[in-house]
Amino acid sequence: MSMKAIFLDRDGVINELVYYPEQGIIDSPFTVEQFRLLLGVGEAIKKLREMGYKVILASNQPGIAKGSLCEETFEKIRQKMKEKLAKEGAFLDGEYYCFHHPEAKIGKLKANCECRKPEPGLLLQAAKEMDIDLSQSWMIGDGLTDVNAGKGAGARTILLGRMKCELCHLMDKEGTSPDFVVPNLLEAAKIISSQQSAVLEDKDEDRKI
Length: 209
Fold this sequence. Notes:
Layout: E1 5-8, E2 18-20, E3 25-27, H1 41-50, E4 54-60, H2 63-66, H3 71-87, E5 94-98, H4 121-130, E6 138-141, H5 144-153, E7 156-159, H6 162-174, H7 185-208
Parallel strand pairs: 1-4, 1-6, 4-5, 6-7
Antiparallel strand pairs: 2-3
């Protein structure tokens, strides 16, 4: 009889994302010290397993391909994750990673593959190897790549708003915030245009006075 499963993304779902001020980006932890388990993750995994779900990690991890960390460091981070979860009585039933990237610096990892989310390859591989009924399973992640991978595999999906929360915490920490928040470059251009028009109108009013 096939089993049902919960597929989890890693960064932003199991552990905290890391801010790299030099590059101005938020990304995966690249050192063991940077890996921090998110609050309540262990308890959540325990509850999911108690409900009869296999809990399986399905994560894009292009850091090695990009030269951000080595295989040895990645393995140490992975072991720290397992140790931190074990301390909370939580365990993963499987781990599936995509190490590829289309712009990889390492030749063997440079690929447009079927396992890199939003493609559903990781979930399909896990389902085949672990006898998982994807129609009874869920994909949980903090990005649309996770949602698309889940839907592509035939699973139901849950999107976590961790990225927005992390960004808010980061802005508080740095003591800075944008003047406007918009969804895309076109909207940004509209804001700039309206601001410029307002400045020109103020100058015209000053001339009249």
